[in-house]
Amino acid sequence: MKITVIGAAGGVGRRVVAQAAQAGHHVTALVRTQEQADMLALHGAQPVLGDLTGEWRHALDGAEAVVWAAGGGAGGNFQAIDGDALIALTDELARRDGGPRRLVVVSSMGVDRPEQMPPFLNAVLRVKAVSDAHVQASALEWTVVRPGGLTDTPGTGMVSAGMPAPRGMIARDDVAGVVLACLNDPRSAGRTFEVVAGNTPVAQAIAEL
């Protein structure tokens, strides 16, 4: 499969790139700097320079699926990235003839209940709620993945997925594994779910959504 990863230099994005390339997919990675391009080329990607606040649409050329793993962060430019850029990407995919139609979005646990999350996340979760809803209202073959707290510990390949899932943490490795499982399982299209570390193998957890 030809996959374009948006936010490819981030913690989840670069793991998606590495796992997808290892699985034999052709991966295009949108990055902002040559340093990031060099790093992701080592992971097996074809880097494309671009910026979500500028020009990025050329990164979609030839793709069969798109993974959104970008984020401005709680203290960053989240309105422009988590909000405006994801909405613009969704609209761009919707208007393109011939695809790609498949979109997997890495969002965040608590988007539907920001008042129950730590206060410093409230603003970014509210922005994500708007852009997630825009994706969900589109005619694309979308999946919205909402992981719990992210860690850099090695992945286990075991998760708990549902809507809602229990509050908890999850390794970025395992979030990347969930993304690839969604791309491999067409039944995940049209699904929104939360995911944390658990006791169910990733592929099984996605199949049982």
UniProtKB/TrEMBL annotation:
CDD domains referenced in this protein's UniProt entry, alphabetically: SDR_a5
Pfam family, one: NAD_binding_10
Domain NAD(P)-binding: 7-186
Cited SUPFAM superfamilies: NAD(P)-binding Rossmann-fold domains
InterPro entries documented for this protein: NAD(P)-bd_dom, NAD(P)-bd_dom_sf
Protein name per Swiss-Prot or TrEMBL: NAD dependent epimerase/dehydratase
Originating organism: Deinococcus seoulensis
